[in-house]
Each structure stands twice: as structure tokens, then as C-alpha cells.
Write a structure and sequence with these properties.
Largest sheet: 4 strands, mixed
Order of helices and strands: HEHEEEHH
Radius of gyration: 17 Å
Helix content: 10-25%
Number of domains: 1
Number of strands: 4
């Protein structure tokens, strides 16, 4: 139990030596969109991102791949113009991450995601070589994220 009186599942798991590494929801294709607005419980759905962009991303269906959409925030995202959009392909034999720099959310509409998928997401121009670490800090989605996420992020 924490000083606030809450018991978190992660605390119970640690007490019983239950591993939590890599226990997050799985997906074969990840759309990671930088967002500097406030995060609600359903961050993407409740965001102020234009509806046409939401519809476009939610409409991407790739046979055999579960597609997930996450909003992310990077340390400097509020201080600079534009935003980042990442596409992560979690193929065990060929995992890859692509990074796109956009001026606005509607810039996503200019990316032909169906064509990228048809090409097997082989876009060497936007291939990112450095890893991207993600930590949940959205307490409106998961109280454990609010409790432990910021500390892990730092």
C-alpha cells in the first residue's frame, strides 16, 4: 500500500516476484503520434486532434497485424514547431521504427499508409536507427502510470 492508501497491482506483483517486463498490450503495428495537449482516459479518442486524422489512422487495417495508436510526448515537444509521428513495426525477425516530421496533424493525411503497408513498411528515408523508449505517465488511463511513470521517465 502507498502513502495515499492505494494498492497498485505492480506493487503486489513485485511482492510476489511476478515479472512485469514486456507485459504491455501487444501490437504488430504502432502509430505513435506526438501530442502536447492534455491526456484523458482515452487519450487518442478524447484528444483535440482533427477528426479526419483520427478517422484516417483508425481506418488503417493491415491483414495479420493488430494496429495500435498511442499519443506520446517528448521532453521538448512543447518548445518546438511541428511534431513527430512514428510508425513501429514489431516483426520479431525485422523490427523497425520510422520517424516522420510533420508541421501539423493533417500532415499525416499526406502519408500513404496503405502504400507503405503494401511495400512492407520499407521506407529507408525515414528509418530511425536510435531506440525510442516509451513510459506511461497518463494517470487518467492507469493510476499506476501516474504513480511510477514520471519517476521511470526521469
Amino acid at each position: 500500500m502507498t502513502e495515499t492508501g492505494h494498492t497498485f497491482c505492480s506493487d503486489i506483483a513485485r511482492e510476489h516476484n511476478v515479472p512485469l517486463m514486456a507485459s504491455a498490450t501487444r501490437g504488430g503495428l504502432w502509430f505513435l503520434l506526438e501530442y502536447s495537449g492534455s491526456y484523458e482516459g482515452k487519450a487518442f479518442e478524447q484528444s483535440e486532434i482533427p477528426e479526419q486524422v483520427k478517422d484516417y489512422l483508425q481506418g488503417v487495417k493491415i491483414p495479420g497485424l493488430k494496429t495500435r495508436i498511442l499519443l506520446i510526448r517528448q521532453e521538448d515537444s512543447r518548445q518546438r514547431d511541428g511534431l513527430h509521428f512514428f510508425i513501429g513495426v514489431t516483426d520479431p525477425q525485422n523490427p523497425r521504427l520510422f520517424e516522420y516530421r510533420l508541421q501539423s496533424y493533417t500532415g499525416i493525411l499526406e502519408l500513404n499508409l496503405a502504400e507503405l503497408a503494401a511495400q512492407g513498411f520499407e521506407d529507408s528515408e525515414h528509418l530511425r536507427r536510435e531506440p525510442l523508449f516509451l513510459v506511461c505517465t497518463n494517470g487518467r488511463r492507469d493510476a499506476c502510470c501516474a504513480r511510477y511513470g514520471p519517476e521511470i521517465y526521469q
